[in-house]
């Protein structure tokens, strides 16, 4: 599976960005992860293959929305009310089992929580 993340940039606090993850093969759960400088990579959100199940890290609940368009093989992460603490490189990743993706949210994505494939990152900077 190949994944391509895009949509990052510089935005002011309180602003919005929409990230996109284009993936090459269907029937995979997709997770968004982020890694800030000097910090561990963390799971932000996950969406099941059908899009019927989603999960969010507590830090982004109510501000971020994950969705997918299976006809276009694209997953989106709509990020609203952005804060400086959201500054990070954002990665998308695929899982053959949605359960592992959901479990990786709130847990470092290593070991049993590690995805099958990673995409390259897109940088998000929230600053005035």
Summarize the structure.
With 128 residues, the protein is mostly beta strands. The chain has one helix spanning 98-103; strands at 3-6, 9-11, 17-23, 29-35, 42-47, 54-56, 64-69, 74-79, 88-95, 117-118, 122-126. The chain is 5% helix and 45% strand.
List the total number of helices: 1
- Beta-strand segment tally: 11
Mean pLDDT: 95
- How much β-strand is present in the residues? 35-45%
> Ranges with pLDDT <50 over ≥5 residues?
none
Give the distance, in angstroms, between the N- and C-terminal Cα atoms.
37 Å
Gross morphology = globular
Q: Quickly give the structural class.
A: mainly beta
* Radius of gyration based on Cα positions: 13 Å
N to C succession of SSEs: EEEEEEEEEHEE
Helix content: under 10%
Largest sheet: 7 strands, mixed
Task: Give an account of the 3D structure.
The chain has 128 residues and is mainly beta. Helix content is 5%, strand content 45%. The protein contains one helix and eleven strands. Strands 2, 4, 5, 6, 9, 10 and 11 form a seven-stranded mixed β-sheet that branches. The chain has a four-stranded antiparallel β-sheet with strand order 1-3-8-7, with no helix packed on it. The longest helix is centred in the last third of the chain and has 6 residues. It starts with a strand and ends with a strand.
């Amino acid at each position: 599976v190949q994944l391509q993340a895009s949509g990052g940039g510089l935005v002011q606090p309180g602003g919005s960005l929409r990230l996109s993850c284009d993936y090459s093969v269907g029937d995979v759960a997709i997770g968004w992860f982020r890694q800030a400088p000097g910090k561990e990579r963390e799971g932000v959100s996950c969406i099941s293959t059908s899009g019927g199940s989603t999960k969010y890290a507590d830090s982004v609940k109510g501000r971020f929305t994950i969705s997918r368009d299976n006809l276009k093989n694209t997953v989106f992460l709509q990020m609203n009310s952005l804060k400086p603490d959201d500054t990070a490189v954002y990665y998308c990743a695929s899982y053959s089992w949605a359960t592992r993706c959901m479990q990786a949210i709130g847990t470092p994505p290593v070991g049993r929580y590690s995805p099958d494939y990673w995409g390259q990152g897109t940088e998000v900077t929230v600053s005035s």
